[in-house]
Automatic annotation (TrEMBL):
GO terms for molecular function: protein serine/threonine phosphatase inhibitor activity. InterPro entries: CPI-17, CPI-17_sf. One of its GO terms (biological process) is innate immune response. Belongs to the PP1 inhibitor family. Residues 1-16 have a biased composition (Low complexity). This is Protein phosphatase 1 regulatory subunit 14B. GO terms for cellular component: cytoplasm. The lineage of its organism: Eukaryota, Metazoa, Chordata, Craniata, Vertebrata. Residues 1-37 are annotated as: Disordered. It comes from the Eukaryota. It comes from Pyxicephalus adspersus. Keywords: Acetylation, Coiled coil, Phosphoprotein, Protein phosphatase inhibitor.
Amino acid sequence: MAALSSPGSSPHPTSPRVYFQSPNETSEEPERRHPGKVTVKYDRKELRKRLRLEEWILEQLVLLYDCQEEEIPELEIDVDELLDMETDEQRGERVKELLNDCYKPTEAFISGLLEKIQGMQKLSTPQKK
């Protein structure tokens, strides 16, 4: 079980603390708590952008394949893989490869995707501080 201590009870009033408690330990025994810190932070703005992009991709694939979400062929558009590529031409070719079984024109989707990933950052595992 984890509990947040109040800022006033911490030696550093501005840093929140998390205390881990074993399952058989009661909250009346504070001397047995083990202090811990929440050390992993995510860039929430970048996560929101990524989520909106993934939702957009899903909507577009439903339109491209003219089917329900569950019926979209098994394919994975890895945004981080695309961001690793050096040019939009390489990115576009990769997406075109992934959509090779789509019978509808994919050019508008590919150009929209390339436009949306401009300036995005790779989502790597956050580093502990």
